[in-house]
């Protein structure tokens, strides 16, 4: 159970098909290229660094979190990752589930 939960979390972070969403000058919704995973950007190298920098810079974390629910694909991948993370915690930590 824990292994499958970890695999789904890794898949949603690094392999799931979503849109890039990196900040682009002149576009309020960001880059619309296809990306792999919530943490990685599209084929443009600078967009990959911008997405990772959004997690580190305190002022840009809000923009990154808003991008997690920007469209249908990103919402499904975000909810799958969060659900599998919670499932892994329940399987790992005894006594979390109330019987």
What does this structure look like?
The protein has 99 residues and is mainly alpha-helical. The chain has 4 helices and 2 strands. It has a two-stranded antiparallel ribbon. Helix 1 (2-14) packs antiparallel against helix 4 (72-92) and helix 2 (45-56) packs across helix 3. The chain is elongated. It starts with a helix and ends in a 7-residue tail after the last helix. The mean pLDDT is 85.
Compact description:
With 99 residues, this protein is mostly helical.
- Secondary structure: helix percent: 40-55%
Sheet with most strands: 2 strands, antiparallel
Structural class category: mainly alpha
Tally of DSSP β-strands: 2
Order of strands across the biggest sheet?
1-2
Helix run count:
4
Overall morphology: elongated
Low-confidence stretches: none
Q: What is the CA-atom radius of gyration, in angstroms?
A: 15 Å
Assess the beta-strand content as a share of residues: 5-15%
What gap, in angstroms, lies between the N and C termini?
19 Å
List the helices and strands in order: HEEHHH
Average of the residue pLDDT scores: 85
Show the helix and strand layout.
Elements: H1 2-14, E1 17-19, E2 34-36, H2 45-56, H3 61-67, H4 72-92
Antiparallel strand pairs: 1-2
Helix pairs in contact: 1-4, 2-3
Q: Features of this protein?
A:
mainly alpha, 2 strands, 54% helix, 6% strand, elongated
């Amino acid at each position: 159970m824990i292994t499958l939960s970890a695999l789904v979390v890794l898949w949603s972070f690094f392999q799931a098909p979503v849109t890039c969403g990196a900040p682009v000058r002149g576009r309020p919704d960001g880059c619309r290229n296809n990306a792999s995973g919530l943490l990685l950007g599209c084929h443009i190298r600078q967009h990959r660094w911008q997405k990772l920098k959004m997690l580190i810079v305190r002022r840009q974390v809000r923009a990154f979190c808003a991008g997690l629910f920007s469209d249908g694909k990103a919402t499904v991948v975000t909810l799958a990752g969060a659900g599998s993370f919670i499932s892994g915690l329940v399987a790992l930590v005894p006594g979390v589930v109330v019987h």
